[in-house]
Amino acid sequence: MKIEFADIVFLNHELKNQGTRYHVEYKDEDTGCIEPPGECCLTESMKKRAKECITEYYREKGEQVMFSDDFLYFSIREQEADEK
Known about the structure:
By secondary structure, the chain is α+β, with helices and mostly antiparallel strands. The chain is built from two helices and four strands. The protein has helices at about 5-15, 45-60; strands at about 25-30, 30-35, 65, 75-80. Strands 1-2-4-3 form a four-stranded antiparallel β-sheet, covered by helices on one side. A hairpin with a 2-residue loop joins β1 (about 25-30) and β2 (about 30-35). The longest helix has 17 residues, at about 45-60. The protein is globular and about 40 Å long.
């Protein structure tokens, strides 16, 4: 599924409000790029909050997020009926 520009704007706003220091942008129209904070600020709790923020946003839209193993990219798909 395509990632909308409004999704990127909203996610960046929420990530900032939650103090994660993560930032998202487009890799391409179907893939988002997750930019982590600098190494001095990178923590597991920030990573967890960022992942939860992105996941919850798309869950509310009826979509599921798939993250890359390195947590640098994500894509979305429609949630299956049993996941809603």
